[in-house]
Amino acid sequence: MTARAADRARYDRATAQLDAPVAIVDLDAFDANADDLVRRAGGKPIRVASKSVRCRALLERVLAREGFAGIMSFTLAESLWLGRSGFDDVLLAYPSADRAGYAELAADPKLAAAVTVMIDDPAQLDLIDAARAGGSEVVRVCLELDTALTLLGGRVRIGARRSPLHSPAQVAEMARAVARRPGFEVVGIMAYEGHVAGVGDAVAGRPLRSRAVRLMQAAARRELAERRAAVVRAVREVVPDLEFVNGGGTGSVQHTAAEDAVTEIAAGSGLYVPRLFDNYTSFRGRPAALFALPVVRRPGVGVVTVLGGGYPASGAPGADRLPVPYLPEGLRYDPQEGAGEVQTPLLGPVADDLLIGDKVWFRHAKAGELCERFDTLHLVEGDAVTATVPTYRGEGHTFL
């Protein structure tokens, strides 16, 4: 029996009394992935990206482990909810226009101490001030650095379009703009190199593309390490007691941790290891988050139909954004139908071994987005479900 076949047998036994659709997290794999992230971080603390987890119980579990400290959130409403729930170090990774949220933040000493917001433009400070509604608490802010690699005098750009702050001078001037405003305090710098951390460099069947990605990423790492160090030096001239410099992501943990200027690493997807992280040379994780759909039809030889399945991930549309049939091995989508909203045909000789009611296990393309489809996660240890916990959705929250 292969390792994957053994996993399928375990998951089927663990969920035998549960009707599909159903989502699980294999805690043995989850904990092993957490250990691997800590090893790769080389002693620097890992701030957990909540967007990639979306389950308070699992955030608590990983933050209880040595090597993890703090949360990187994705909306202000989520940040405040986490702060009210007892998480005392929450970095909001994206700017917000949530005026009601800013009013609550500025009026509550506990939340103001726990939550740090992201800015990259003085207009964001104006919005926060206009939203204070009399709240006088100092708002902690983090400055985001654009990490994109620019070539040919800026005519070529490689990387996500995030912050407009690219040079040390621009980030330092933003720090001075904050320092001039009462009611704000710069406490950190963030720089997410998504073109390194979030792009696979070993795409199956694409050797030339994979080599090009590796060359690009090597150049991007060198350029960013030098520029990030210069940014930190420039900002420390304005804010000598800067608390943190955050960088990285699951795919670049060990590379970012090697930079002296970086004090902490962000990672989250590496806990679940969704399918988009199969194409990396820098690490190998264990799939920990899966969902199962039930076989409801057998339309013909070599075909079964499962209920549901149309759970695409965010990003540029493409086949790599679809969940992948994982267990049993050997199933694939019908190219004429793909993953359907209410039913999904699956092809392959192994389909003939499946009966009505059997489970087919899938891996989502991206990590936490799976939790937008399920109210609960069943936590599996060995071949048993040892706990069932709510996702954000299960607690009544869909923040985006």
Give the topology, please.
Blueprint lengths: L2 H12 L7 E5 H15 L4 E4 L6 H8 L4 E6 L2 H9 L5 E3 L6 H9 L1 H6 E5 L2 H10 L7 E6 L4 E3 L4 E3 L9 H12 L4 E8 L2 H4 L9 H32 L5 E4 L5 H5 L6 E4 L1 H4 L16 E12 L2 E5 L16 E4 L4 E2 L9 E5 L11 E5 L12 E6 L2 E7 L10
Parallel strand pairs: 1-18, 2-3, 2-11, 3-4, 4-5, 5-6, 6-9, 9-10, 10-11
Antiparallel strand pairs: 1-12, 7-8, 12-13, 12-17, 13-16, 14-17, 15-16, 18-19
Helix pairs in contact: 5-7, 8-10
Describe the structure.
With 400 residues, this protein is α/β, with parallel strands linked by helices. It has helices at 3-14, 27-41, 56-63, 76-84, 99-107, 109-114, 122-131, 168-179, 194-197, 207-238, 253-257, 269-272, and strands at residues 22-26, 46-49, 68-73, 90-92, 115-119, 139-144, 149-151, 156-158, 184-191, 244-247, 264-267, 289-300, 303-307, 324-327, 332-333, 343-347, 359-363, 376-381, 384-390. Strands 1, 12, 13, 14, 15, 16, 17, 18 and 19 form a nine-stranded mixed β-sheet that branches. It has an eight-stranded parallel barrel with strand order 2-3-4-5-6-9-10-11, surrounded by five helices. It is globular and about 70 Å long.
List keywords for this structure.
single chain; 400 residues; alpha/beta; 9-stranded mixed β-sheet; 8-stranded parallel barrel; 19 strands; globular
